[in-house]
Amino acid sequence: MQNSIRIVTLCCVISLIGGCGFFSVYKRDQPQGNLITPEMVQQVQQGMTREQVTYIMGAPLMDNPFDANQWDYVYQLHTADGQVYDKRVSLYFQDDQVSYIDTSGDIGTAPPAREQAPPASEATTTPLQPVTPIQSSTPSAGD
Prior knowledge:
Elements: H1 2-18, E1 30-33, H2 38-43, H3 50-57, E2 62-63, E3 70-78, E4 84-94, E5 97-105
Antiparallel strand pairs: 1-3, 2-3, 3-4, 4-5
């Protein structure tokens, strides 16, 4: 009886300790804001209209209440290992056209990927086959 109580107590203690954080918990990356890629920033040029910018970059994250001619795109990524990546693009308009582009953060590089897809040369793809419709063997009500 004494041994069975000790074994049960030991099993309970081990199961409680296992859930207390000795083993790391899966953490995922937390992106926030507008996704900003180097290709997007390179496409935006001075003289573009607001509609053209919206097509490339999307809607701005923040509307400046003090200056309607400034659009801010902000992106922040908190990685699972605790690193933080900040990117910011501010576009200034004059006569509804981009007059100045201000960038900050590391726009030119992407944060390290956790899992990488295989290169296109190594990727295995199967060609899609056309789907043929199935013919019904039961006559319709109109026949």
